[in-house]
Design goal:
8% strand; 45% helix; 3-stranded mixed β-sheet; single chain; mainly alpha; elongated
Length: 299
């Protein structure tokens, strides 16, 4: 969204919790920028898609001559624009190709999987490799090295405009800002680091696998000296479970110094024990009374 600087943390009083309002400059109109980078450290000119029906001459003032601009109804890419982009990619990389084929790594967007897109790649010896769904944050070099700092720099420029009283970021403003911040992000070092972090160049799948969060399934609790299994912390529902929970808490507190918190917990546990014992007695009495009442009814 061209008018939104970035996500922010707001410090506010407890009286307004959940009702804090952050005013950001500009509108929330969408613009799409399709970027492409190479493992040797260079990027092809961007393909910018603006919301509109026709091109405006003001968009091209100060714009690099090799940038591509397109329009769509909402500023998002379409199947037709995806086909236009693959032709743009072909023209920008054909003269730089070493060997007969080019490898193009893509995310799973639908505009990359049309018959026209696929046919153009086949005819021009472009091998496409689509990443599995929901993995681009781990496997796509652009996501790993370029897009995050790009978002930060762009948001900084939008905030600077707001300080000077510019409260609406239009298409010309967006193109000016993006032209300014892009060279600082798409550097050879940054691009190479993206391919390295994705385990592509050098080829190192373990680099990605080792970064995945691993959830270990807990093994069944063992027994100590043939006794009862060790109690794990959970909500107690019986007096026996409460005793085991209290024992677990006491063992934890014994390893720490006595404090008002530990004393309060001990008192809380004692109160819970008394309440649960009383409830057990009442439940037993109620059961006996119901049984006696049922017998009287039968008589």
């Amino acid at each position: 969204m061209m008018g939104v600087a970035a996500t922010s943390k707001v410090v506010t009083s407890s009286d307004t919790a959940g009702r804090a309002i952050l005013i950001q400059p500009g509108n929330r109109e969408w613009v799409t920028v399709i970027e492409g980078v190479n493992a040797t450290g260079w990027a092809i000119p961007p393909f910018v898609i603006l919301a509109g029906k026709a091109h405006q001459s003001g968009w091209y003032q100060g714009l690099p001559g090799d940038w591509m601009l397109a329009v769509s109804d909402n500023g998002w890419t379409t199947d037709e624009l995806g086909y236009e982009w693959i032709k743009h990619f072909d023209n920008c990389t054909k003269s730089c190709t070493k060997g007969a084929y080019r490898l193009l790594i893509l995310d799973g967007h639908g505009s990359h999987a049309t018959p026209e897109f696929d046919q153009h790649c086949t005819e021009n010896k472009i091998i496409t490799l689509c990443m599995p769904s929901h993995t681009s944050h781990r496997l796509q070099p652009l996501d790993l090295s370029c897009y995050s700092p790009l978002k930060v720099l762009y948001g900084h420029e939008v905030q600077e405009l707001s300080r000077y009283g510019v409260q609406h970021v239009d298409k010309e403003d967006f193109l000016t800002i993006y032209t300014k911040v892009r060279p600082s992000v798409f550097t050879e070092k940054s691009i190479r680091n993206g391919f390295l972090a994705a385990g592509l160049v050098r080829y190192d799948p373990e680099r990605v696998i080792s970064s995945l969060p691993i959830t270990k399934t807990p093994s069944p609790p063992g027994t100590a000296n043939g006794g009862a299994p060790q109690w794990t912390s959970e909500t107690p529902h019986t007096t026996t479970q409460l005793e085991q929970q209290a024992r677990l808490i006491r063992n934890i507190l014994q390893r720490q110094s006595q404090s008002p918190t530990s004393q309060a917990i001990s008192q809380l546990v004692k109160g819970c024990q008394m309440a649960m014992h009383s409830a057990a007695i009442l439940a037993k009495e109620n059961s006996e009374l119901r049984t006696a009442n049922q017998r009287r009814k039968q008589k």
